[in-house]
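Mods, move this if it's the wrong board.
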Amino acid sequence: MTDGPVGQGPVIALCGRPGSGKSALAHGIAARVAQASVVEWDQYETVTRWPPEVVTDWLRRGADPAEVEAPGLTRALIAARTRGPVLFETPFGRTHVLSGALIDTAIWIDLAVDTALARKLGQLLEAGAKRDWLAGYLAAYETVVRPSCEIQAARVAPQCDHRIVNDLPAAGLIDRVLALPPLAVLPRSGT
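Not the wrong board. Structure tokens:
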């Protein structure tokens, strides 16, 4: 854990596979911590717009997170931390050099690969993903998605300060994370 500048909230990274519960956990914690905000990697990343062959080549070359651009992300994290604690939903944690340098505490959310996949598909369907897009996601699962998740778990999880298992309903998981030393001292909201 690093110490942020005085008067600035900590940046708490929630890391894990797609579907592990990063976004739900970030929003649930932010609702219970005074002046907390959420910054979501997905709002800034560009890798999901890469053609499949570019992603495959990136994986073949070692999947360096520094090659993934996220325009405006660093600026958003810096701005958010001036207002209070930041829950940063990110697949890369500290391995993404620019945003990783701003992380004070990183938490890896462990969830079985099959459960994470089922949740991700459910999220995509709920968000109105088109049948063709879902078919493409599933077709790329073995060659792109799963290898990406394996690399992510091998690189990101070891750099996290805490590792939690997502084996509880949302409220229980939020309580578990809020009990971790860096979060236990944050002031709670009135709601």
